[in-house]
């Protein structure tokens, strides 16, 4: 018996909507990465992009602990000498919440051409609306059980900014 190789005709891409309101960043990112890779499908192969399209809404309402908001740093470099820039999670979440989710998911995908093709199927929006209604996306509940308020007094990113 030979190893199954998914053909382009075998791959059927669905559209899913994931609500990030009150979700823990890492748990959200790991589940979104799994859906983007297609590991939930029986035709999954590690060298072929069999994943679905994912729409993440309410990215600005992630559940992040206050310590992580202050301590987690994101770095980027301009390419010039001394051009290293540092930004805290709190500042980046207030400025560009889509980038926080995209960076978390990108770190969980394969590196190289395959990972870049997979991250292209990820659409992230800070609010509850998205322009992809024509694709008829199905709502997908996160399998991670921990939501805000389930374990204790954690502050969501939206309450941190207002208070």
Task: Provide a descriptive summary of the structure in words.
There is one protein chain. This protein has 163 residues and is an alpha/beta fold. It has one domain: Ribosomal protein L13 (Ribosomal Protein L13p, Chain: A). Helix content is 30%, strand content 16%. It is built from six helices and six strands. The chain has helices at residues 25-37, 66-71, 89-95, 97-106, 113-119, 157-162; strands at 15-19, 53-57, 73-77, 84-88, 122-124, 138-140. The strands form two sheets. It has a four-stranded parallel beta sheet with strand order 5-2-1-6, with helices on one face. A hairpin with a 6-residue loop joins strand 3 (73-77) and strand 4 (84-88). Helix 1 (25-37) packs across helix 4 (97-106) and helix 3 packs across helix 4. It is globular. It starts with 14 loop residues before the first strand and ends with a helix. The relative contact order is 0.24. The model has no long low-confidence stretch (mean pLDDT 91).
